[in-house]
Write a structure and sequence with these properties.
MetI-like fold; 529 residues; 75% helix; globular; disordered N terminus; single chain
Length: 529
Amino acid sequence: MRSQRTRCGTWTASGSLKLLLCAFWIVAIVLPLFYLLSSMASVNIFSILSGRKFIRALQHSLYASLTATGASVFIAGIISWCVVRTKIRHKALLMMLLSLPMLIPSISHGMGLVIVLGARGWISRVLGLSGGIYGFWGIVAGSVMYSFPVAFLMLCDILAYEDGTPYEAAEVMGLSFPSRLFAITLPYLWKPLISVVFAVFTMIITDYGVPLMVGGKYITLPVMLYQDVIGMLDFGKGSVIGAVLLLPALIACVFDIASKERGSENSGTPLRIRSNAARDRAARAVCLAFLTIVFLPIASFAVLAFVERYPIDMTISLKNVWQTLDMGMLRYLKNSIIIAFVVSILGTVLATVNAYMTVRLRTKLSGVLHLMSVLTLAVPGLVLGLSYILFFKGMPIYGTLAMMFLVNTVHFFASPYLMMYNTFGKIDMNLEDVGEAMGISRWRIFRDVLIPQSAGTIVEMMSYFFINSMMTISAVSFLATVANKPVALMITQFEGQMQLECAAFVSLVILAVNVGMKWGLYSVKKALA
C-alpha cells in the first residue's frame, strides 16, 4: 500500500509538472502564433498574396534559397568527407575553424562580402570588377557561408557513425572508390540528407541578415517583412508574410521528425581509415582552400574595424572603436551578455526538465509536451518576434530584459531539447524501477546518475543557448528597446548609416565573446570527460 501511494504521489507530482510545462508552452508559443494568424483577419490576404511585390519577393526567396541550399550541402559533403574519411592531422582544430562562421550574425557575413566583393571591395578593385556582388549571387554566396557550418557538422556526425562492415566487404570484392560511393555511401546518406537539406533550406529562406546587406534590389520575403514592420509598422501585412514563412519551416520540421522516426542508429564495426598519402594531401588542400575562402570576409572586416575610412583612407586608427563605444556599445554588450548567460541557464534547465518528463516519465501527456517542445523548431525568429509583439504588447513583461530572456529561450529551445532527449533515451530505462525497488527516489537518480552521465550534453546545450543569444538579430529586432537592446542590433543600425567600420568592430566583439565562451565550455567539458 505504501509503495502504491508513493507511485501515486510521484505520478501526481510529475503529472502536475507536465501540465505546468504545457501551460508554459501554450503561453510562450501557441497563443502568440494564434494571435499572429488571427491578426490577418483585418487585412485583405488575397490582395497581399497576389500583389506583384509579394510574388516577386517569394520567387526571389525560393530561387536564392534553393540555389544556396544545394551549394551549401554539396560543399559541406565534400569537406566533411575530407575531414572524416581521411587521415589528415589536426581534425579537431580544423572542425573548430570551419565552424567559426556560426559564431557571428548572418548580417556580418553579408558585410564581409561587401568588403571583399562589393562595389568598393578590395578584390573588386584589384580585379577591376564593377557592380559588386549584389543581388541573387550575393545572397547565395552569403547564405552558403552562413549555413555551411551547420550542414558540415551534421554531415560529419552522420559519416562518423556509418557502419564499416559493408566497406570491408566491398574492399574484399575489389570495388573501386566510385563504386563504393554510389553503392554504399550515397544510399546510406539518403535519409539523413533529407534532414540536412531541410535544416539548411529553413535557415536560408527565413534569414534577413544576408539579403538585407547584399540583396540590393533583389528583395526576399524576410527583408520585405522587416521593412513592412520596422519601416511602415504594417503589422497586418507582416502577419501574412510571417504566416507564409512559417510554411517551409513547418514542412522541414515534419520531415525532420518523420525521417528520425523512420531512420535507425547504425551499429556495427567502425569504419577503418587506411593510410593514403595522395588522398590525404588532396583532402588537406581542399580543406585549406575552403578555409581561406571562409576566412577572407572575416579577416576583411577585422581589418576594416581599425582603418580610418574604407576604402578612401586605410590608415590604422581607433576612431571607429571610440565612436562605437560613445554610442553605447558597452551598455548594449552588457545587455547581450546578461541575456545570453541567463538564457543559457534557464534554457538548459527547462530543456533538461522537459526532456526528462517526455523520455523518463512517459504518459499520454508526454507526447503533447514533446510536440510543443519541438514546435519551436518550425518558427523562424522574425515570425516569433512579430507574434510576441502582438501577444505581449501592453503586458508588464513587454519591453524588459525578461522579454528577451523568454523570446531567446523559446527561439533556440528545440535543438538543445532534442540533444537531451536523445541523451536521456540512451541511458538504461530501467534505472528508476531498480531504484524504486531499492528505496531510492527518482530525484536522487536524476541528480546522482542522469545528470552526471549527461554532463557533456549539458555543456553543449549551454554553449548553444549562449552563442545564439549573443548573435541573433531576428527574433529580438522587433522587441528591443533602448533599455534592453542587444549589441548585435548595432550592426543593423550602423549598416543603415553606412558606417561599416563600426559594424565590423561590433561583429568582432561578438565573435571574441563567443570564441571565449566556446573555449571556456570546451575546457569544462574536457575536464568532465
